[in-house]
Specification:
Layout: H1 3-9, H2 15-27, H3 53-62, E1 66-69, H4 76-87, H5 99-119, H6 134-147, E2 152-156, H7 162-170, H8 174-182, E3 201-206, E4 212-217, H9 227-242, H10 246-249, E5 250-257, H11 258-263, H12 265-272, E6 285-290, H13 299-302, E7 319-323, H14 327-344, E8 348-353, H15 371-378, H16 383-391, H17 396-413, H18 449-459, H19 470-483, H20 491-505, E9 509-513, E10 528-529, E11 536-537, E12 550-554, H21 560-571, E13 577-581, H22 592-599, H23 602-606, E14 613-617, H24 632-638, E15 645-647, H25 652-664, E16 671-675, H26 689-693, E17 700-701, E18 711-715, H27 718-730, E19 735-740, E20 742-744, H28 748-757, E21 763-771, H29 777-787, E22 792-798, H30 809-824
Parallel strand pairs: 2-4, 2-5, 5-6, 6-8, 7-8, 9-12, 9-13, 13-14, 14-16, 15-16, 18-19, 18-21, 21-22
Antiparallel strand pairs: 1-7, 3-4, 10-11, 15-20, 17-19
Length: about 850
């Protein structure tokens, strides 16, 4: 037995020994040999100025090429697990590392990059050179996952090394990658598509135990960390689909750049969700592909601490730092990280510290900004050569074999289509389609009155002995009356009935957002709370024996990560109605990257569909600039090629049909719903049970008049009800009011029919609450002018403004009164 083993296995270490080992477990990572180029200097600490056999044994373990941070974890069992793995005399795996397999991976990684550099000079590829150990790391993680019975790994990463991972881990043929380099025809995608280092890929990883692990590499944009919550949401959906064994079967592995990991807040928001009910995936493995540089920015300018990984210490999770030029240590860390995830259902971070051989891209010159570091890099041997010398193997035969394979792949690429598909969608997408909208896709969404009543009565009920809050009890009594047709339905009840009837039809429903269980405006109450013990009862989960699942979660105080998560969930549960609700509509501002890069553009860039629903409370009610507008104009600006649906239902029945249509149509597109605030309970927006039995959602609600009106006001949302009230007050019989319920895809046929029906109308007026530079005005006006067939078209709106609304309630009331007055004014004086 070695001295090190004797120290570790001593049954009763002395107090001095315990202090020595504690010091190195706590601080050893600060003196670990982690940077292949030596720029990350050890920190001199008095706590580690120790000598003797115990200090040397501890130093060898904790200050070698692996440095681990784990003493901040409060759970002693988890700390002990890491101690035992780190301090065991043998590697964590039961067998010695497969050195030939490691060398093969390293050679393939770097020769692949060199071939691309030679043959496609001046083309961006974001080389993995300097971090080639990422491949043995992923190998170790996926082999260990297979031993844990994992069926699939959801991978996410930015562009650095992505092409290499596609070929060597996902298993896509190199010819497919070469074919994308050969694509020089700008007509090939007609303005759509994406660059090769952003697209996703699927494949199979052949594990050492003979099993295959399916790999799904998630598509992502250049907003580097925006993919994090999307990947986690996708993993959650896949786990949910499997059931109890889902966390065992599906493992998420997310790769980050060091500067992005430290600097981009969406990662912190995503990490914060790791243990939150509704967003937990029972652990994820996070790899920082750490070049110690971000574009041209060095670590001291990228983050305020020694390691970019320090952000992750906000959670009680381990952080393994490892020198990328010790590939056997890298493989050992990969296995430990994966095993820890399965042992404790916890995230774990691996900080793989290497370097970047070229600039940010291969066309960038890094010697301008980091001349000294790049002098070292230019003379530094490739890792495959260093490792081959270390283990005493002649690597030239491997290199020659790889070059021959890549030569053959390039010849094959010349025969392939220039943008070959690199993925296969799961079978659960077979029933759904994207592309342009067509009337043939419409479905009837009405529900018979008897079914509505039965569902509504169940929704308004709760178990005997359940201590309900008096205010909620009154609301449920009102809902019981609504269900029985004795009272008009408000938006809250219409939504509950839409959810309930879908659940009974077998359509799952998932809703999340800040305070969404109760609802920001006290309108939902999806979860009832016993006021004596705070136990929950969720009526929507108790409607029928074989109903689909219903989930409602209060989310963390984040928009970007939560919406990204729900978008991801919708990508792998297309048959579910997946909804994200902003507390107020303007909160969507905080998720703009997800909206721009995934929700609006995902189909055009990656041909990937999603039916995620955004519920955005919207309406000018004197609550100030921050809680008035959900920024209709921004969504309309993103609308093209029928990529999204943008609607503002004005009645409870319309909201009911809209939600059911979203779930029941085979057309899968994101839906943006501008939901009401005060209108949630306004009698003018209420509906009858019979209206919920009507066939479908109406994109345009015509005026009920006989068509003799000489003026037509067109609008969307709350302002329409106010216009109707003003018309009634004025006893105006010459003005028609038309509600445009669906702004996009633009309901041209329905709107044209209504405008043509108004043969006596001399003018059409678009009326909106929003300022002239906001709202739907810029979108609607040219379209109305086209449909008006030469008749006058004008608009009524607030003056253009830098801010959405006034902060003064009195000023708001004056503005709103002026809007209504001007809307009914006759500019011609006739």
């Amino acid at each position: 037995m070695s001295r090190q083993q004797a120290v570790i296995e001593s049954a009763a270490p002395t107090e001095a020994q315990a202090r020595i080992w504690d010091a190195f477990r706590r601080w050893g990572y600060l003196q670990a040999n982690l940077d292949p180029l030596g720029d990350l200097k050890p920190v001199e600490l008095p706590e580690l100025a120790l000598s003797g056999p115990d200090a040397e044994a501890a130093r060898k373990i904790y200050c070698g090429t692996i440095g681990v941070e784990f003493m901040h974890i409060p759970d002693p069992e988890r700390r002990r697990w890491i101690e035992e793995r780190m301090e065991s005399a043998a590697p964590a795996s039961t067998a010695a590392p497969d050195q030939k397999a490691i060398l093969d991976r390293l050679a393939r990684a770097e020769i692949f990059e060199q071939v691309l550099q030679t043959r496609y000079l001046g083309t961006k590829r974001y080389s993995l050179e300097g971090e080639a150990a990422l491949l043995p790391l992923l190998d170790a993680i996926l082999n260990a996952a297979s031993e844990q019975d994992a069926q699939q790994a959801v991978l996410a990463m930015s562009h650095r090394g992505r092409l290499n991972v596609m070929v060597h881990i996902v298993g896509r043929p190199a010819a497919e990658v070469f074919a994308r380099f050969e694509d020089v025809d700008p007509r090939s995608v007609l303005g759509g598509g994406d660059v090769k280092y952003h697209i996703g890929a699927t494949g199979d990883f052949p594990a050492a135990n003979g099993r295959n692990v399916e790999i799904h590499l998630v598509s992502n944009p250049s907003h580097l960390e925006a993919v994090d919550p999307v990947a986690i949401g996708r993993a959650r959906a896949k786990q949910t689909r499997i059931g109890e064994a889902g966390a065992q079967a599906i493992v998420p592995v997310v790769m980050h750049g060091d500067a992005a990991f430290a600097g981009q807040g969406i990662w912190a928001e995503t990490l914060n969700m790791a243990g939150v009910e509704g967003f937990n995936v029972r652990g994820s493995v996070h790899i920082i592909v750490n070049n110690l540089i971000g574009f041209t920015t060095v670590p001291r300018e990228s983050h305020s601490s020694r390691f970019s990984s320090d952000l992750s210490k906000r959670l009680p999770i381990p952080i393994f730092h490892v020198n990328a030029e010790d590939p056997e240590a890298v493989a050992r860390v990969g296995r430990m990280a994966l095993d820890y995830r399965y042992a404790f259902g916890s995230p774990v971070v691996v900080d793989l510290i290497g370097y970047r051989k070229h600039g940010h891209s291969e066309v960038d010159d890094p010697t301008i900004t980091q001349p000294l570091r790049y002098k070292k890099i230019q003379v530094h041997q490739p890792l495959w050569q260093i490792y081959a010398q270390k283990i005493g193997v002649d690597a030239e035969p491997i290199v020659e074999k790889v070059r021959q394979e890549l030569d053959a792949a390039q010849k094959e690429a010349e025969e392939l289509e220039k943008n070959p598909p690199m993925r296969k969608l799961p079978v659960y997408w077979d029933a759904y389609r994207g592309g342009r909208c067509s009337p043939s896709l419409e479905v009837d969404t009405g529900v018979p009155t008897a079914e509505l009543t039965a569902t509504g009565e169940a929704l308004a009920s709760y178990p005997d002995g359940f201590h309900i809050h008096p205010k909620v009890k009154k609301l449920l009594e009102q809902r019981m009356e609504m269900a029985r047709g004795k009272r008009p339905l408000d938006f809250g009840m219409a939504e509950a009935l839409a959810f309930g009837t879908l659940l009974k039809q077998g359509t799952p429903v998932r809703l999340s957002g800040q305070d969404s269980k109760r609802g920001t405006f006290n309108q939902r109450h999806a979860a009832l709370i016993d006021i004596e013990n705070e136990k929950e009862f969720i009526p929507l989960q108790h409607l029928a024996p074989n109903q689909a699942f219903f989930e409602a979660y209060n989310s963390t105080l984040s928009e970007a990560s939560v919406l990204g998560f729900e978008y991801g969930f919708s990508r792998d549960y297309p048959e579910a109605l997946v909804l994200w609700e902003a507390q107020f509509g303007d909160f969507a501002n905080g998720a703009q990257i997800i909206i721009d890069q995934f929700i609006a553009a995902g189909e055009d860039k990656w041909n990937l569909l999603s039916g995620v629903v955004l519920l955005l409370p919207h309406g000018y009610e004197g609550q100030g600039p921050e809680h008035s507008s959900a920024r209709i104009e921004r969504f309309l600006q993103l609308a093209a090629r029928d990529n999204i649906q943008i609607c503002q239902p004005s009645t409870a029945a319309q909201y009911f049909h809209l939600l059911r249509r979203q779930a029941m149509r085979s057309w899968r597109k994101p839906l943006v719903v501008f939901t009401p605030k005060s209108m949630l309970r306004t009698p003018a927006s209420s509906s009858t049970l019979a209206e919920l039995s009507a066939p479908r959602f109406r994109p345009v609600i015509p005026d009920s008049g006989n068509g003799t009106a000489t003026r037509v006001l067109l609008c969307t949302g709350k302002i329409g009800h106010e216009l109707e009230a003003e018309r009634k007050r004025r006893k105006d019989e010459t003005t028609a009011i038309v509600f445009v319920e669906q702004l996009y895809p633009f309901p041209e046929a329905e709107l044209a029919a209504e405008m043509d029906r108004r043969a006596n109308a001399r003018e059409f007026v678009w009326v909106q609450e929003e300022p002239a530079n906001m709202g739907a005005l810029a979108f609607m006006l040219p379209r109305l002018e086209r449909l008006a067939r030469g008749r006058s078209v004008r608009s009524v709106k607030r003056s253009a403004s830098a801010s959405p609304a006034t902060g003064s309630h009195k000023a708001h009331e004056m503005e709103q009164k002026t809007l209504l007055t001007v809307a009914f004014a006759n500019p011609t004086g006739e």
